[in-house]
């Protein structure tokens, strides 16, 4: 009875292995179905990924040349965009600072008065 508790249902593991994961020709150091870390990171074999990247780079470069876009222009546009976003963020903080001061001019004296009058009770 207790022997049946430790067996998998139907007596077989995945892919025809025994209940402990060791099928015929089991070698604990060999991993056939797992790609290496490099293959997983690159998304395939290094040679195939290199060929794909070269082909896509040529294709994108040709398209950019047809539209008159240069790498220098791309970097300049990216710099201008980032600069505009940073300036917009600082303007927002500047406005928020003014709102904070305007609100504090009203809220702090009212809070102080409420504390003074509550203390007298």
Keywords:
mainly alpha; 121 residues; 0% strand
Written account of the structure:
This protein is mostly helical and 121 residues long. It has two domains: 34-69; 70-121. The chain contains four helices and no strands. The protein has helices at 2-5, 37-42, 46-67, 71-119. The protein starts with a helix and ends with a helix. The chain crosses the membrane at residues 49-79, 99-118. This is DUF6460 domain-containing protein. Residues 86-119 form the DUF6460 domain. Keywords: Membrane, Transmembrane, Transmembrane helix.
Number of strands: 0
Terminal CA distance: 78 Å
How many domains? Answer: 2
Low-confidence stretches: none
Shape: elongated
SSE ordering: HHHH
Q: Please tell me the overall pLDDT.
A: 80
Number of helices: 4
**Taking Cα atoms only, what radius of gyration do you get, to the nearest Å?**
34 Å
| Helix-strand category | mainly alpha
Helix content: 55-70%
Summarize the main sheet. none
- Name the beta content range: under 5%
Transmembrane segments: 49-79, 99-118
Region (Disordered): 1-34
InterPro entries: DUF6460
Domain DUF6460: 86-119
